[in-house]
Amino acid sequence: MRRFVWVLVSLVAACGAHAPPAPTAGTPPVAAPDAGLAGTPRAPKAPVALEEYFNTRRFGPPKFSAGDRWVAYSSDEGGRPDVWVQPVGGGPARQITHVQGFLHGYDFSPTRDQLVFGADVGGDEFAHLFLTDSAGTTPQDITANLPSGRRADFVEWALDGKTFLYLSTLRDARFMDLYEYEVRSGKSKLLWKASGLLSLAAVSRDHRRFVLEDRLSDVDSNLYLLERGSHGKPRLLTQHKGTVLYAPTDFSKDGKTLFVTSDAGGEYLALYAMTLPAGRMKPVRSESWDVDGAGFSPHHRWFFSRMNEDGLPRATVSDARTHKPLTLPPAPGAGAWDPQSFSWSDRYLGVLLRGDATPGAPYVIDLKTGQARALAEPLPPSLRDHRMAAARSVRVPSFDGKQVPTFVYSPDAPAPGSPGILLIHGGPTSQSLRRFSPFVQYFVSKGYVVEVPNVRGSTGYGKSWTVLDNKDFAGGPLKDVVACKQWLVQNTGVSADKVAIAGGSYGGYMVLAAATFTPTEFAAQVDYFGVSELKSLVEQFPAYWESGKAFIYTKFGNPNDPKDVQYMHDRSPLYFVDRIQRPLLVVQGDKDVRVKKDQSDRIVEALQGRNVPVHYVILKNEGHGFSRNESQITAFGTTDRFLDRYLFGDTSVTVDR
Length: 657
Prior knowledge:
- The protein has 657 residues and is α+β, with helices and mostly antiparallel strands.
- The chain has 2 domains: 319 residues, Methylamine Dehydrogenase, Chain H (7 Propeller), CATH 2.130.10.120; 221 residues, Alpha/Beta hydrolase fold, catalytic domain (Rossmann fold), CATH 3.40.50.
- It is built from 10 helices and 36 strands.
- The strands form 8 sheets. Strands 29-30-32-31-33-34-35-36 form an 8-stranded mixed β-sheet, sandwiched between helices. A 4-stranded antiparallel β-sheet has the order 1-2-3-4, with no helix packed on it. Strands 5-6-7-8 form a 4-stranded antiparallel β-sheet, with no helix packed on it.
- A hairpin with a 7-residue loop joins strand 26 and strand 27.
- The longest helix has 19 residues.
- The radius of gyration is 25 Å and the shape is globular.
């Protein structure tokens, strides 16, 4: 909960003679097939409209005000994610921000009714910081002096509420410097000038010690300790040989111990306590999965740690002094608690409910009484009585005998010849988690089997798996995708000629790679803001990713190295568009600063004029993802019609509207 390092990763039918019986409460809705007129193919109709699934609320982490009076969380109930507040003890919620792009972060002051939040415009990622209160008083832009194309990101409040820390590219568009904002004077003070490959990763409670990270690759990093006011060089804490990943999570109360996660002892991230400034590490928690989070409550009464078990969080909270575990109330359904923040008094824990069949929602857990209270209902009334599809976790053998961790979502009894979708995550250094997905649930309700693989290069399954895509884009990972498609056909009854592939960002790249390098494998392809040309992608990454250059070049290739340039050309779908044979849908935000619009423009332009169906949806004032609810419905509604038209041959469907 207290780590601030930049992570450069990113998303996101049966036909027969008789209709099945109408679904009853507690049963997943099942699509009814439609034979059409005079044998004309017709796509199945979902029992509940797609728009209803995407009326499922998107929520962000709970944050508490001074005196435990208010709790804030983000919700898209107003049309896009904004900050909402309600009394901690329960009561009506109200929207207090009205952003025009992505909401970047928010938190209440520990001593007064004051809330800071970050927001950009149109998803351009050039966020400013604003001050308001629980009533939503007109926000004050405290970074109004930022030049165009610069950004600021909130870090955390001081415990006395007099100041807070933030990062900004005010001085140099390439570097996220550390500033301290004084509330009373309204002035900011520069504390640390970023340079080279170092970025802020953690701060002590008294804001006297800072941990800097040098991210060398997705499995290798170094940590440095910087003392406030020190004019010397930061002190290296993690001298090591080989590749070892270190990630700071929090400081002890006296600031003399730094808690870090590291894979120094094996394949997975374990939790360690590091003495400062010596850098000696002692194991705290080690599992056969990654420990991906840990930290103290504001006054160090409680300590939490979280394990990522096959995509589902497993968290523990214990007394920080006695280490005695605290019994938390059970999470609803098959869900799990994901700790997000403690209240300033240490009494309350704000969590998000996680699970593949359980819609995510913010909760407040009273650590004194052991009671959990939901802050909002995520599902629309039309879906509250429906049981959602839960993932089956499988391991799919790939071309070289390695096992691809995969989640499979399906109707209770998929009919022979059902359609299928492979949904590929972004990143690439990321992981498909067991999170509720309106996309997955809608298409399962329509009769699809949806397969969500964590192909080589994904995190969460050991560092040896994570490095396997380094400078091998469209190589081993694409072979994993093909193996997963073959497994889907052989093991679920899905028809080989009714399998589509979809993905966003890096997942979109994988879609385009499949379209060009395995052109007859998938019946239809859906690319959400995907990469078509690797060299220009890396050259056009945001300037403030400067500290991640070593990481980026190790993963994607160096555009200044002739050998890497040739590799980047040979793995770029743009140069092999003439191989594409199957229909393609491309969705792109016009303000995307990560995968710029020209990545999609060029692939579409190259396809136009050929006898291959291509559809292009440009979302105005959207960035790398969909901030507005209407954009989600546009993107996924078009996807639905596209698959109706090209998987089922339903010529009555008009894809573009």
